[in-house]
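In the current project phase, the collection of sequences with tokenised folds has grown. A representative record is quoted in full directly below:
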Amino acid sequence: MRWLTLTLVILITALQWPLWFGKGSWLRVWQLDKQLQEQRATNQKLIARNAALDAEVRDLKQGTDAMEERARNELGMIRNGEVFFQLLGSNNGNPPR
């Protein structure tokens, strides 16, 4: 009787092994699910970034305000007749005395 019980336990363990640790096991399913969630989060960030870039491209194509803003901020350009003032503050954010 003891041999029969031991044989059945070994047989059940042998049948359960692929379910828990094999190629298509639950462990692998959990890992893939985690990877899927991470990839979805990454995709959402990229979708938001692409939408912002798309809006910027549309704005640059349609209006001159965006081009003017970029020229001022990135290239330091000013219009004819304008005077450029640059205010420098102290380290703590208070204006100089």
